[in-house]
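Ticket #4471: structure output looks truncated?

Reporter: J.K.
Steps to reproduce: submitted the chain below (257 residues) through the standard prediction queue, then opened the result file.
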Amino acid sequence: MNSRKQQVEAFGRLLDIMDDLREKCPWDKKQTLESLRHLTIEETYELGDAILDNDLQEIKKELGDLLLHIVFYAKIGSETNDFDIADVANSICDKLISRHPHIYSDVVVENEEEVKQNWEKLKLKEGKKSVLEGVPKSLPALVKASRIQDKVKGVGFDWEETHQVLDKVKEELQELQVEIEAGNQEAMEAEFGDVLFSMINYARFLKINPEDALERTNKKFIKRFMYLESKANELGKPLADMTLAEMDVFWEEAKRL
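Returned output as attached by the reporter:
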């Protein structure tokens, strides 16, 4: 592994390259905070894919792409004298020191949960009106639900036992069934949302990340379905012309593989 000196030198090299690109490259000169935003989101999802695939070389590359974006934003900020990379780094350093009084002060904590609770309390002391202010509005709904539940747990708003959460899941399923039988579309949607929210909460108690779990299922389904498509292609028979029973044979093969 690289020494701390080598790490600092590598970061300095990236800053120098960013200066060159911003000055000399037509594409890089045109970029703004807004124009980079969607690219940053895309890079973040690519990093997430690499993590789920446990592809360490790809993780390294995607982290580099994200680091470039951070340096790029800081470079743009420096051009308007609003902030530079030192301000960005010092800001997060100051926040980490402030939010970890059990490391940098005399606060004593017993476990991870107390650390998280202190974190939320400190954020409120810093002027936030709600613990939910830190949940980005643009997060995908499933991820947002997880973050909401984590946040409120930090101030003690939570179930005490796992079985209570499972009971809530069952209760929400029963309420959904009532609305399905009544044929009320709007109420069905509302109850279905409650079922999903309670399932995400249950996942938290089981120490399962629901986003990761669902994405792994997505990947598994895609792999099996593509196997089914390849087998249909070998037979020269379109999937649309196959019966469900015929397709199920190959689906079971895919599961075994």
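Triage note (M.O.): checked the attachment and the full token line is present. The first helix runs from residue 4 to 24.
Status: closed, working as intended.
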